[in-house]
Amino acid sequence: MLLRTNETNFNDTLLSLLEKTRTMDVSANVTDIKNMYPLKWIIPITIVYGIIFITGLLGNVSTCIVIARNKTMHTATNYYLFSLAISDLFLLISALLPEMYRIWSPENYIFGQTFCIIQGFAAETSVNATVLTITAFTVERYVAICHPFLSHTIAKLSRIIKFIIAIWVAALCLAIPQAIQFGVEYDVRDNVETSMCSVVTEGLFQHSFEISTFLFFVGPMTLITVLYVLIALKLRKSGKQCRISRSARNSVAQKKVIKMLGEFHNLSTIKGI
């Protein structure tokens, strides 16, 4: 009887030790997940992100208010700037704020599946709209400098507004294939559940991200580079023509002065005689 009691006590003690060890392992794993990023890096990064967010928010909101309230600023260039400010605000809210949360809690996404998809959709839309707006603005500058007569037709404010609306519609539509691939990915390691918002269904639209990279980076970057080279060549040619024209005008002026001095000299000679 005494032996059985001792055996029971030993088993209870062993089970208690195993349970404590298991609890300590789980706690250690949770601590490792929370400390994935060193605190000495998290705080400076958070401060930098905070400064970027505040300055970006104030700057872009101020830009939108100033352009919207002042009719004298309703120009083609300022309309493109207004569109860029809106896309920047989307990017700040949909990308920077979640990133700030992620560095503090890298594997504990609490906002759910729907918000994860909306977050990805907003981020993709803002990037697409920014790239398309910059490209359209570059095309408008190219037409204004290299084809000034055509610019009067294309650069009407009503047309610019239609272009910007088309840009945002295209940005929204082309962001859908990437957005629906976002989701909350769950994982269990040592009885600790982790979750993070990431791409979870890449096979649904295979190569969609590669296509998006070409459409919104390689293609626009190539077009912008070519157009700015053409603008530079046009300005260089115009500068040479201005110098030639200025030189011709100076030559005509010098001839007039010489002719006038010659006539004055002849008149003085006649009077002397």
Salient structural properties:
single chain; 273 residues; mainly alpha; Rhopdopsin 7-helix transmembrane proteins; 2 domains; two-stranded antiparallel ribbon; 82% helix; elongated; disordered N terminus
Structure, described:
The protein has helices at residues 2-34, 39-69, 76-104, 112-146, 148-154, 157-179, 208-272; strands at residues 182-189, 192-199. The termini are far apart. It has 273 residues and is mainly alpha-helical. The chain has a two-stranded antiparallel ribbon with strand order 1-2. It is elongated, with a radius of gyration of 34 Å. It folds into 2 domains: 1-32; 36-249, Up-down Bundle (Rhopdopsin 7-helix transmembrane proteins), CATH 1.20.1070.
Q: How large is the count of helical segments?
A: 7
What is the residue-mean pLDDT, rounded to a whole number? 76
Strand order of the largest sheet: 1-2
The CATH homologous superfamily of the largest domain is named Rhodopsin 7-helix transmembrane proteins
Largest sheet: 2 strands, antiparallel
Record field, number of beta strands: 2
Binned, the helix content reads over 70%
Number of domains: 2
- Architecture of the largest domain, according to CATH? Up-down Bundle
Described by its quaternary structure, the protein is single chain
Topology as a string of helices (H) and strands (E): HHHHHHEEH
The unreliable regions are 1-11, 17-35
Here the CATH topology of the largest domain equals Rhopdopsin 7-helix transmembrane proteins
Per the principal axes of the C-alpha atoms, what is the gross shape? elongated
Indicate the CATH class of the largest domain: Mainly Alpha
Assign the structural class, choosing from mainly alpha, mainly beta, alpha/beta, alpha+beta, or little secondary structure: mainly alpha
Terminal CA distance: 158 Å
Bin the strand percentage. 5-15%
Radius of gyration: 34 Å
Transmembrane segments: 41-67, 79-97, 117-139, 160-180, 214-233
Protein name: 7 transmembrane receptor (Rhodopsin family)
Pfam family, one: 7tm_1
Membrane topology: Multi-pass membrane protein
